[in-house]
Amino acid sequence: MSAMTALANQLRSAFHLASRDAYVKGAFVLPALLVVLSLLVLLFSNANVHVMFEGAVLSLIRVGALFGTCLSMAGIVTHDVSSGGLRAAVLAERGRGGYVASRVILALVLAVLLGVWSVLLGMAPLLGPRVVFEGMPAGELALRVAAHVLVGWTWAVFGMLLLWLARSPRGFASAFFAAVILGAGVLNALLLVPVAVLIPLSQELAFGAFQLIVPILPSSLLGDAFVADARLVVLPVAYVIVFWALSRRVMARAPL
Questions:
Q1: Pick the residue with more confidence: 49 or 210?
Q2: Which terminus has fewer CB within 10 Å in the chain: N or C?
Q3: Who contacts 54 (Cβ-Cβ below 8 Å, separation ≥6)?
Q4: What confidence tens digit (pLDDT) does each residue in 96-132 have?
Q5: Eight-class DSSP state of 222
Q6: Which candidate, 150, 127, 163, 189, places its Cα nearest to that of 65?
Q7: Nearest Cα to 25, choosing from 104, 150, 117?
Q8: Which stretches within the chain are classed as H helix?
């Protein structure tokens, strides 16, 4: 069996599982619930309450494309481990590499779909009279949405690496906790560990390290000081490639 055929089989299996997975469905439901609650608040609040359109859209993107992608993939990997699906996948010819690749690709597809879904839901406040526009250019808003989608993909792939290292099928609590810490930016915290180590030794060295690390933090693409440059695509893709390579090594050595 060729590598491409093995990958195609793994992808078909991945998308089939994702279409029926409760975690994936929950990831799509969460931003919808947020919109419903927001509309109810507007409906029963006084006339002085308004919705900032751009901020509302980005908030939904954080719930959908960031947290939702992490939750979906954490849930899928947890189900793979607990149900024996992981063992079945990696026992197939060229199964280990194809399994990792299929999950990485699935994470990107889900991040895009959840991003589009969240943006569509973000249009709902436009139906009401209490929408206020902040004046953000449409192009910048679109790039911010893209940044959230790509960072959601990055964090989800990082989360899968952690779960494959742990190989501990603990069900919903495990998957949800993993999604929470990923969505809270645990990767950024880990990248800043060298700064914390250097502070007692030299504040100047620590500050220099901080200046070097900040531009490569995934969260730097989501901050208020948003800059649309090559990092928007290069940074997430570079992290995904690293985590993909590490995941392949983990799976290559994992006992079955």
A1: 210
A2: C
A3: 133, 134, 136, 141
A4: 788 899 999 999 999 999 999 999 998 877 776 677 7
A5: T
A6: 150
A7: 117
A8: 3-20, 22-44, 53-61, 69-83, 85-91, 95-122, 138-166, 171-183, 186-191, 193-198, 203-213, 231-253
